[in-house]
Design brief:
Two copies of one chain form a homodimer. The first copy, chain A, is mainly alpha-helical and 213 residues long. The first copy, chain A, is 69% helix and 0% strand. Chain A folds into two domains: 1-68, Arc Repressor Mutant, subunit A (Orthogonal Bundle), CATH 1.10.10; 70-213, Tetracycline Repressor, domain 2, CATH 1.10.357.10. The first copy, chain A, contains ten helices and no strands. In chain A, helix 2 crosses helix 3. Chain A starts with a helix and ends with a helix. The A-B interface holds A 43-46, 125-129, 132, 145, 167, 169-170, 172-184, 187-190, 203, 206-213 and B 43-46, 125-129, 132, 145, 167, 169-170, 172-184, 187-190, 203, 206-213. Chain A binds a DNA duplex (33 and 33 nucleotides) through residues 21-24, 27, 48-51, 58-62, 64-66, 69-70.
Chain lengths: 213, 213
DNA sequence: TGTACATCAGTGAACGCGCGTTCACTGATGTAC
DNA sequence: TGTACATCAGTGAACGCGCGTTCACTGATGTAC
């Protein structure tokens, strides 16, 4: 158990070429990594700042310098999650230019991310425990929707364009469908995780067939 | 603030024709009502058994006789939520026999319930804090999906039939779409509650048009 | 190149808090005779 | 119909716990001269 935090701490030092000592090196990144492990094990509901600090091998007050409070740390985890999700969507996007295939590919990627990173996915949407007004959070979450919207519109993704005043209902439908499916799966509607994953694998095609956009 | 709990307590007594006294009358129902108020104000994350007890005007140990622990009380709230949702879906179902209209009507009812009872809706799906194996929870949640599935299949709802081994992908698509839309709205993607509600009102038709089942 | 000093990042002990849970208890209820 | 008694539902004081946060501090870093 303590190996984990030591590992996080030392890997981190090695990566940054810092000797062990009073200063950590990159505590910010280490805390995000530690928090992600905590979330994976205990879920968002069981998260505490103290445990994350303990796990990063640091005193309970240390995180304050970097994140202020638990909300700040969770927001950072959520932001990182949206970045990863955005990358997954972008990767899927790069595989084809066919509009329908782009949409389906992103749908698959969305679900793969959600089922593969349930703790992060939960955190990303737990708006009561994160600061949804934080600029980098907003930016990274907007990018994810922007990518999906571009695929639906059949145009390349342009990072600079923010959400238009009125979202395209077809994009909202796509997003809702995959998001809802992910949530139902994570909430156990299709059985325990492994069963759900198999069920989704079989169902995703036919389910997405119902969407005509 | 204390008026609330007194109100709950006294209304409850009046309803059951019990005098004030050592025994409550129907503490079980009063605790569920008090818990729902707590959830509405503080959200699931801020919920505590003690506060619910306080609010019901009862000592901290009293809930144990009825619910065991916080998990038990939240499960009861969730169960009641699924019953209400099921009723809303059944009411919508009673308005028409046209298949497409049944599906759309249930979709509207689902979203109206979610946006109108956000705290209960959150609780219903917060599987880490409720006992999803509890029989009455399972029954009431299955009923909700059963109603939707019957509409998609174009047949009347039969309470006795449990979920089949393999769910109909079209029903899963419908459920995912409305569930995802509800979650995105509740999580603030479409703006603050009142704005989101208006946005959903305008979007729901076009969004559901994308679903061909 | 060397030194002084401000700034930054982390320590660790301490605090007060609300929580869930336990405990011995007591008042009310309802049933058996 | 009246009484005894078991059972049930609630009390309220107490407990130990982990939490977030504060505090005076100290070790390391980097910059100005």
């Amino acid at each position: 158990m303590n190996e984990d935090l030591d590992t996080v701490k030392k890997q981190d030092r090695r990566r940054h070429g810092k000797p062990d000592g009073y200063h950590h090196g990159d505590l910010r990144a280490a805390l995000i990594a530690a928090a992600t492990l905590c979330l994976r094990e205990r879920g968002v509901d069981g998260f505490s700042l103290r445990e994350a600090a303990r796990r990063a091998g640091v005193s309970p007050a240390a995180p304050q310098h970097h994140f202020g409070d638990a909300r700040g740390l969770l927001t950072a985890v959520a932001t990182q999650g949206f970045r990863k999700l955005g990358n997954a969507l972008a990767d899927a996007d790069a595989e084809t230019v066919d509009r329908t295939e782009r949409i389906r590919g992103q749908g698959r990627a969305y679900l793969r991310f959600a089922l593969g990173h349930p703790a992060e996915f939960d955190t990303m949407w737990r708006c009561a425990r994160i600061d949804t007004a934080e600029p980098s959070y907003k930016e990274s979450s907007r990018r994810a929707f922007g990518l999906l919207e571009a695929a639906v519109a059949g145009r390349p993704y342009e990072p600079q364009s923010p959400l238009p005043g009125e979202a395209d209902p077809r994009a909202v439908a796509c997003w809702s469908l995959v998001h809802g499916l992910a949530r139902l799966a994570l909430d156990g509607v299709f059985g325990p995780p492994d069963v759900a994953e198999a069920a989704i694998d079989g169902m995703l095609g036919p389910v997405m067939d119902c969407l005509v956009v």
